[in-house]
Amino acid sequence: MSMTLMTQAMSIKVGNPIRKLVLIKLADNANDKGECWPSYQHIADQCEIGRSTVKAHIRALEEMGLVRREYRKNGDLNQSNLFHLTFDKLTQSTTESSGASNDLGQNLTEGVGQIITEVGQELTEGGAGVVPGGGAGAAP
Q1: Average pLDDT, stretch 82-105?
Q2: pTM of the model
Q3: For residue 57, what are the contacts with CB-CB under 8 A and spacing of at least 6?
Q4: Do the Cβ atoms of 13 and 7 come closer than 8 Å?
Q5: pLDDT tens string 63-81
Q6: Which end of the chain is more exposed for a tag (fewer CB within 10 A), N or C?
Q7: Is residue 66 classed exposed, middle or buried when 0-12, 13-18 and 19+ CB atoms within 10 A define those classes?
Q8: Which residue intervals of the chain are DSSP H helices?
Q9: Residue extents of the structural domains in the chain
């Protein structure tokens, strides 16, 4: 089990919670080189999903470039596939684009701060939040 790959798998957005679970299970089975060879049935049992669902999500992960599958045979007998987790490419592209996402977060925070300031000014200048004098507890 590679804790590094598991942490990376948890931080990757794959667009589907079951697909993410399959990816995390592959990372859980992987060695430090990102290689693992669990059977579809093993993944299905561990994730509590159907075998065909596992196959569909692994195909989707391959299309996303997160997994590469190597088919293995021993003579006429099929062996479990060898899966290679390919997070390196994703990590590089995420690192390159991280500057833009940090700027976006800063702009959003500044925008929210401006809105809060404007609402606070309305409240102190007699806006909807100001409580007029009088009422049940006021002196006559």
Answers
A1: 59
A2: 0.62
A3: 16, 18, 19, 22, 23
A4: no
A5: 999 999 998 877 777 778 8
A6: C
A7: buried
A8: 3-11, 17-29, 40-47, 51-63, 87-124
A9: 3-85, 93-123
Mean pLDDT, the chain, as a whole number?
76
The widest CA-to-CA distance across the chain, in whole angstroms, is 100
Please measure the distance between the N-terminal and C-terminal CA atoms of the chain and give it in whole angstroms: 76
pLDDT of residue 72: 80
CATH topology assigned to domain 3-85 = Arc Repressor Mutant, subunit A (1.10.10)
* 14-35 pLDDT, tens digit each: 999 999 999 999 999 999 999 9
CA distance 28 to 79: 20
